[in-house]
Write a structure and sequence with these properties.
Mean pLDDT: 90
Number of domains: 2
CATH topology of the largest domain: Rossmann fold
Radius of gyration: 19 Å
Number of strands: 8
Low-confidence stretches: 1-7, 340-347
Number of helices: 14
CATH class of the largest domain: Alpha Beta
Oligomer: single chain
Strand content: 5-15%
CATH architecture of the largest domain: 3-Layer(aba) Sandwich
Order of helices and strands: EHEHEHEHEHEHEHEHHHHHHH
CATH superfamily of the largest domain: NAD(P)-binding Rossmann-like Domain
Shape: globular
Helix content: 40-55%
Largest sheet: 8 strands, mixed
Length: 347
């Protein structure tokens, strides 16, 4: 992956940044944007108690317990107020609600702003990536849209554990502006021009994380999980390249890096969802027990439809769907044995 490190955000003149969505990832990324900078960062939240806690106590205890938020980070219930005057707008809402949210307040996004997707999912009914939904609903040019992805588990980042990510855009200038704003002492953002690969990397690794969670829930060991992770990288790489991604992106931060972080960590929502499926819970029961959205569960079916359209074989994801639908016992899942691919791009 061709990428470039960017200066610390404190080197730039202060700007107003809006973050739409005050869940764990939205709040964590707002903290990234506010730390080590003079930027005015404003979070849009749906709940009055969340807004009050952020503004009065500089905390969001429901999603980031024990984490102190910076003083230059505030929150509001009023989306129009949050968006007014923002130079950069970061979107961190559940992927299946993005279209409706943009229809509600998207017209309030300043015409010259850069819109940044922090989401990792595809729209169920259309199969569109989040950047495509943004462009379709808002009418913003591709040069104003950036996607961010990488090995980013919110609780670890909120604790300021060092990590890195990738900002991708059709516009190098837009990607650099976002990377500059989101680089600080513990979080480094690189840039590339491969929007498709960066975005699909973040989407597809969730599906493999669910598969690894399933076998972990069943009780299988490290050999099984390592096999699935390796074959999973081959599977998602074939898919992404078929849709125009650059092969190198899939072995970088947005591909392999994110896959490793998400697949094994108990902090991963998708891993936890898969683990519950592996222990015998139904999809309905898993969704009831999950406090936050596991994007992988809603992305399985539309990704398989997209794979079929390109003639791409995805045996791991197919077996995840069978388990989700109750058509396969979790103990019978063995996706790493169903395809002879040994290298990520070898058909």
């Amino acid at each position: 992956m061709t990428s470039s490190q960017t200066p610390n955000a404190s080197d730039a003149a202060p700007i107003k940044i809006a973050v739409m969505g005050a869940g764990s990832w939205g709040t964590t990324f707002a903290k990234v944007l506010a730390d080590d900078s003079n930027n005015e960062v404003v979070l849009w939240a749906r709940r009055e108690d969340v807004v009050e806690e952020i503004n009065e106590e500089h905390r969001n205890g429901d999603y980031l317990p024990g984490i102190k938020l910076p003083a230059n980070l505030s929150a509001s219930l009023n989306a129009v107020e949050v968006l007014a005057g923002a130079s950069q707008v970061y979107l961190s809402v559940p992927s299946q609600t993005l279209r409706d949210n943009l229809k509600t307040w998207g017209s309030a996004i300043p015409a010259g702003a850069i819109i940044v997707s922090l989401m990792k999912g595809v729209e169920k009914d259309t199969g569109l990536r989040m950047s495509e939904v943004i462009a379709e609903v808002t009418g913003f040019d591709a040069n104003q849209i950036v996607v961010i992805s990488g090995p980013n588990l919110a609780p670890e980042i909120a604790k300021q554990e060092p990590t890195a990510s990738v900002a991708a855009s059709a516009s190098k200038a837009a990607a650099l502006a976002v990377a500059k704003a989101s680089t600080n002492s513990y979080f480094t953002t690189f840039t590339n021009r491969d929007v498709i690969g960066t975005e699909f990397g973040g989407i597809l690794k969730n599906l493999i994380a669910v598969a690894i969670g399933i076998v972990n829930g069943v009780g299988y060991g490290e050999n099984t999980k390592a096999s699935i992770m390796t074959r999973g990288l081959a599977e998602i790489s074939r898919f992404a390249v078929a849709y125009g991604a650059k092969p190198n992106t899939m072995v970088g931060l947005a591909g392999m890096g994110d896959l490793i972080a998400t697949s094994e960590s108990p902090l991963s929502r998708n891993h936890r969802a898969g683990e519950m499926l592996g222990k015998g819970f139904t999809k309905r029961e898993v969704l009831k027990r999950m406090q936050q959205t596991a994007e992988g569960l809603s992305s399985v079916a539309p990704i398989l439809q997209l794979a079929e359209a390109k003639g791409v074989s995805m045996p791991i994801v197919e077996q995840v769907l069978l388990v989700m639908e109750g058509k396969m016992a979790p103990k019978d899942i063995a996706p790493f044995l169903t395809h002879s691919t040994d290298t990520p791009l070898d058909e």
